User: Fold this.
Amino acid sequence: MAATIRIQRERFDTAAESAKLTRGRTDIGAVVTFTGICRGAEDGAPLKALTLEYYPGMAEAEIARHVDDAQARWPLLGVTVIHRHGRMEPGEDIVLVVTASSHRQAAFEAASFIMDFLKTRAPFWKQVEQGDATAWVEATKADDAAAQRWVKKDAAE
Assistant:
């Protein structure tokens, strides 16, 4: 399986990344793309910007581990994960997950799985700017619950 994992400051082009993953391939029957975008508000308050920091080396390894886990669960033919770091303003893309498989269900589930673990396990830290104040933000209970559903599935198998 082809896998691309990048952490970068630069913006990315979702369509170009999807095309790169599928170019010349006739075995792929489904591609799912998820793009996380910086919202204009956090907890109901206007957001000026957010800054993402990460642990170099460890972040890439943790993402790769979850991509490997996804490949073990679903018949994937390709995965791309691009996560930005640095300061981003509302409307800017933050993260891209692209999954390719012969069938749609595997591509959908794998993309959801990878994104759930990116939100809760990958070593990224988010700081928000609201007005003149900045604050570090932790993963939400909803994010933890979304990741936990995959753990519960394992326990039932």
The chain is about 35% helix and 35% strand.
